[in-house]
Write the structure tokens for this entry.
Amino acid sequence: MGSIDTNPTAFAAFGDDTSFQPLNADDVRSYLHKSVDFIYDYYKSVESLPVLPSVEPGYLRRQLQSVPPTSSAPFDIAMKEVREAVVPGMTHWASPNFFAFFPSTNSAAAIAGDLIASAMNTVGFTWQANPAATEMEVLALDWLAQLLRLPAGFMNRTAAGRGTGGGVILGTTSEAMLVTLVSARDAALRRIGSDGVAGITKLAVYAADQTHSTFFKACRLAGFDPANIKSIPTGADTDYGLDPEKLLEIMKADVAAGLVPTYICATVGTTSSNAVDPIGAIADVAATFNAWVHVDAAYAGSACICPEFRHHLDGVERVDSISMSPHKWLMTCLDCTCLWVRDAHRLTDSLETNPEYLKNDATDSGAVTDLKDMQVGVGRRFRGLKLWMVMRTYGAAKLQEHIRSDVAMAKMFEDAVRADDRFEVVVPRNFALVCFRIKPQGAMTEQDADEANHELMERLNRTGKAYLAHTAIGGKFVLRFAVGSSLQEERHVRSAWELIKKTTSEIIKGEM
């Protein structure tokens, strides 16, 4: 084979030693070896690092030069600055002392899969653009659908061949909500015979007040009238889950007012309290109005690979779409949100693009689904590889063991809270989240208790030894203790509880 460069002297001015070779194989090996050593050291030491950094806004710009470098520098310089400037400003989600929000889990298999995918740097918008990327994503989604025992109608491939449903891996739950909202919107507009989007002001969407705020943002992005985005109040009587009777009442009133019920978002494991909406009963209500039902199982969906938690998805065979995020609790690094739809054509009808430069025989044959037509954008990463690597490496048994271990540690923490009469568990624990607080005692009012709990959270987080977040439930300031960091062990939960007890004693005694 001849050289691509047919004029060897054309670039002689650059010299062999100074030519820019960003993918020089020796450099790739050297840089990655150093990066792997850094990652190894990080995971070995992260437990000893303050979970929440004590830096001020703008700190990084003051430590690193504020103008881009003109000349090259050894890779070791960049790594030195990462260690000295970046790491001290990190909130360490990987820390076993991280109990805030929901976990952002990871694993050796996921890191390896993401590394390989990043190195290949493929852009698999159509099947032809990278057959393996599309095929791997389809396979990984079908595997996970089987672990969740989703109906065959949600799968890309079934024993009988290609199904009507399908899935796609997106970046976030927000994207899953947005694309399904757009599909439901378009279907409703066709149903009422609207010319274009002229009838969009008649469309109404519904969710419980515990639903993640991203739902209401996605509704606005999809063009729904804010007045028709219905947030349905919940309460302790339903453990803060959506009440189907209240939903039916509101939807009937909307129809009487000339609105068209279009979409309901049901949640399995809400962010605030881990509440579970009754999927089957909600699907029954939706069927009356031909409304789309989407299930947001971003966090708790992972638990449903365990038979003892699968009942939380009962009724899923009657919904239109479901999403869950393995990057939260299934050992797969960001970003990885899996969306399945019962009828893939309803999604692609709204999102399909077919420019001349992307036309090809595989697409024209109808034998493949181009994943670009199930998402907002066109370009996409090779996300399926890391998810497949996790399932292929660990298998269902190990993944179930991981979930069960976290739930057991959360139950241990919940039992400790209930045994201390200074505290209360505000809502029944679901999965691996405990919502608790210092309860009013003696002359302490509810307002005093809120202030004490706020002070408890602030003091805990300032120690760097634990990181908790809060929410509001029933008008009360509540602390959230989310178990599930990949490195967490029982000793970390016990240590956090001891710190909570000690700090609470100091607050109640009025010590500063």
User: Anything to note?
Assistant: The radius of gyration is 26 Å. Residues 42 and 87 are 9 Å apart (CA to CA). The first strand starts at residue 157 and ends at 158.
